[in-house]
UniProtKB/TrEMBL annotation:
Protein name: ABC transporter, permease protein 1 (Cluster 1, maltose/g3p/polyamine/iron)
A GO BP annotation: transmembrane transport
GO-annotated cellular components: plasma membrane
CDD domains (UniProt xref): TM_PBP2
Transmembrane segments: 40-60, 102-121, 133-153, 182-204, 240-262, 293-313
Length: 318
């Protein structure tokens, strides 16, 4: 029979091919990528998408989670934030101003200092791996540990810093956590020390991806160290700059623990940041609807800043 002849000679039936010349994907192959993405998609939907949608729903109600009734108020919680002299308008925008100041003070050193550290740690010298670990080590600590540590160091009355300043004959009564501008120094300084290791590692990874042949060509052309940095290193790190600047802005704008533990909002509420006020409004005052509205206003502000940052760096790249 014909089929027996095919089996004896080892000839196989032709494989169906698509118009592009490749084999037609099977049903299992079509869904394989989605199976690999499924765990992340499930976590994203459960812990990000659903809470985000539910948060919008909460912001449209007078939501006290201890009471059964949660009246619908529509956009009242949002309008209240933009109504002068309302209950939440002034303290909320004061906390937003404090957040903006902290971001403005902390982002430049967190962008520049880690770059300098990465340039040094990218060189070949003895003990390089040890110093890489030392600079990154503080980043693995939690914000509670960092806050308590620096609260003890910067305490105006019994802190270690004022003690050693007095031992050196310097002023030893600096109100690090109770007065301005020292309060901002007490927030920005520990934050830079704590988180610069992460940005340094990102910069270091970017530096190792820059083609060494570009430096060799620049040396042949007579470029000095500064010119090589400006015309080779900086263009090679442009995508890294975009990532570092964007993530640093977002992280600084979401500050909470340092303000809550180190300065405790002092003096007065000058260093009380937006996340702290939102948490206070929602969890202590039981105004979850108003707190949710504040959260989305803050999220919108951060989204606009991020888009502006992307547009600015992409414009420079072009």
């Amino acid at each position: 029979m014909a089929t027996q002849g095919v089996e004896r000679t080892g000839v196989q039936p032709p494989v169906a091919r698509s118009a592009g010349g490749g084999r037609k994907p099977t049903d299992a192959g079509t869904f394989t990528p989605y199976l690999f993405m499924a765990p992340y998609l499930v976590l994203f939907v459960v812990f990000v998408l659903v809470p985000a949608v539910f948060g919008i729903w909460i912001s449209l109600h007078n939501w006290d989670y201890l009471l059964p009734g949660k009246p619908w108020v529509g956009l009242e919680n949002y309008l209240d934030l933009f109504t002068p002299n309302s209950a939440n308008s002034t303290p909320f925008w004061n906390s937003m101003e404090a957040t903006a100041k902290f971001t403005l003070f902390s982002v430049p050193p967190l962008v520049v200092i880690p770059l300098l550290v990465a340039l040094i740690l990218n060189q070949s010298f003895r003990g390089r791996n040890f110093f890489r670990a030392v600079y990154f080590a503080p980043y693995v600590l939690g914000v509670a540990v960092i806050g308590i540590l620096w609260r003890f160091i910067l305490d105006p009355n019994n802190g270690l810093l004022n003690y050693y300043l007095g031992a050196l004959g310097l002023p030893d009564s600096i109100p690090w956590t109770t007065s301005l501008p020292w309060g901002w120094v007490a927030l920005v300084g520990p934050t830079v020390w704590w988180t610069m290791g992460f940005n340094a590692v990102i910069y270091l990874t970017g530096l190792q991806d820059v083609d060494p042949a570009l430096y060799d060509a620049a040396k042949v052309d007579g470029a000095n160290r500064w010119q090589r940095f400006r015309h080779v290193t900086v263009p090679g790190l442009r995508p890294v700059f975009l990532f570092v600047v964007t993530t640093t802005i977002l992280a600084s704008a979401n500050v909470f623990g340092q303000s809550y533990i180190i300065t405790q909002g002092a003096p007065g509420n000058e260093t009380r940041v937006a996340i702290w006020y939102i948490a206070q409004e929602g969890l202590r005052s039981f105004n979850m609807g108003s707190a949710a509205a504040m959260s989305y206003v803050l999220a919108l502000a951060l989204a606009l800043v991020s888009l502006a940052n992307f547009a600015l760096l992409r414009y420079k790249e072009d």
